[in-house]
Amino acid sequence: MLNIVAITGMDLTSMQGQMPEDLKKRSQFHWFTSSKEAREHISDADVLISAGRLHPDLVAQATKLKWVQTLSAGIDKLPLEDLARRDVIVTNARGVHTIQMSEFALSLMLQWVRKANLLHDNQQQHVWDHQVQFGELHGKTIGIIGAGAIGEAVARKAKAFDMKVIGLNRSGTPQAAFDTTVHGEEGLAHLLAQSDFVVVLLPSTPKTRGFLRQDHLDLMKPNAFFINLARGDVLNEEALILALQQGKIAGAALDVFAQEPLPPSSPLWSMNNVILTPHIAGASVHYTDRVSTIFYHNLRAMLDGGDMRNVVDLAEGY
After folding, report:
1. Is there a contact between 259 and 231 (Cβ–Cβ < 8 Å)?
2. What is the pLDDT of residues 165-188, one digit of tens each?
3. How many beta carbons lie within 10 A of that of residue 309, not counting itself?
4. What is the largest CA-CA distance in the chain?
5. Which domains does the chain have, with CATH numbers?
6. H or E element, residue 253
7. Which residues are identified as catalytic?
């Protein structure tokens, strides 16, 4: 019987309650909201479930650990070297963000071109201004840095607005949802120079940290809108702030930051060409159900010897 210990503030009531009967009979599921509460159960844990962050000391205490299932796609907050040294399997929640994050990306672009913030402010101030000038998504070019599952979903939705779509992936292999697929530094430069909207969807790995630099931002159109739904460390945040302040790009929507929560001292809070959200692009009322499907599959695979979904390459970090 597998001993499962979940440590997360996420509500896992449905994950526990809806677990298939055959899995319930062959496992014990313990859910705690903090590692302090879970302390007495860690040493017997065969499986740890985490929202994506585990302290190395906690992992060291889990001497029977065979598998870690994260409830997030990102695994950059896990002690990957320790887990790799012990041959612990790590699986993530890749795929559960596709619908909500692609919808969120399109909503941010619409919020920008349809000046939703201005209209809201006018409503609050009882201002009737029917001469506000709006832009459109129609005919614009969107560049998607990170043409994975979420990027493909963004591309499909963007095509419904008659946008041209450029995607950047590691190989440059053409993908059906994109008009053009590019790779490498030359491909990135082309994407940045051509795009009216740039959406970043890269995972945080040793290879992607600091991926976007000031010289990359300098390639963008002055009327371009930049969206980061990836991780704060994939770009030079100070360079982005400077580009926004100097009008080198028109605006940005940021859901992730170099430091979270975003410090009150950050100039981003008061910039009228910036839309800020608190790392919630992947949030959805359906999230737990979707990640539970992955967990149940993987639990059955571990018990029966089948193939697990979303196994992470610990050397690559995703």
Report:
1. no
2. 999 999 989 999 999 999 999 999
3. 16
4. 68
5. 2-95+285-304 (3.40.50.720), 97-276 (3.40.50.720)
6. strand 251-254
7. 231, 260, 279
